[in-house]
């Protein structure tokens, strides 16, 4: 069974690596990891690009807040 993990983020470069490390440490064989960024102005995008090997899909664009971002992630999810 595929499991989808969605992270909604905005200007989270200071803490996002811990989230990426946690996802990378999961032992389930079929994980889909989706990151939805709200057009961050800090180094969040660079951090996402650095961790693309564990990210299935990511989007960076303005949204209407965390609920909008999560809903975008749900629409992209296949698990």
How would you characterize the overall build of this protein?
- The protein is an alpha/beta fold and 79 residues long.
- It is 34% helix and 23% strand.
- It is built from three helices and three strands.
- It has helices spanning 16-24, 44-50, 66-76, and strands spanning 3-9, 31-37, 57-60.
- The protein has a three-stranded parallel beta sheet with strand order 1-2-3, sandwiched between helices.
- Strand 2 (31-37), helix 2 (44-50) and strand 3 form a beta-alpha-beta unit.
- 22% of the residues are buried.
Keywords for this structure?
alpha/beta, about 80 residues
Provide the fold topology.
Layout: E1 3-9, H1 16-24, E2 31-37, H2 44-50, E3 57-60, H3 66-76
Parallel strand pairs: 1-2, 2-3
Please provide a brief summary of the model:
This protein is an alpha/beta fold. It is built from three helices and three strands; from the N terminus they run E-H-E-H-E-H.
Number of strands: 3
Low-confidence stretches: none
Estimated radius of gyration: 12 Å
Percent strand equals: 15-25%
How are helices and strands ordered from N to C?
EHEHEH
The helix content is 25-40%
State the shape: globular
Count of individual helical segments: 3
User: Widest sheet: strand order?
Assistant: 1-2-3
Structural class: alpha/beta
Largest sheet: 3 strands, parallel
Round the mean pLDDT to the nearest integer and report it.
97
State the end-to-end CA separation: 7 Å
């Amino acid at each position: 069974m595929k499991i989808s993990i969605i992270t909604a983020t905005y200007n989270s470069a200071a803490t996002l690596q811990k989230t990426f490390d946690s996802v990378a440490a999961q032992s389930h064989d079929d994980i889909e990891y989706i990151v939805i960024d709200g057009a961050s102005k800090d180094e969040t995008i660079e951090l996402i690009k650095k961790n693309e090997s564990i990210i299935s899909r990511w989007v960076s664009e303005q949204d209407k807040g965390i609920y909008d971002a999560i809903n975008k992630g749900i629409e992209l999810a296949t698990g």
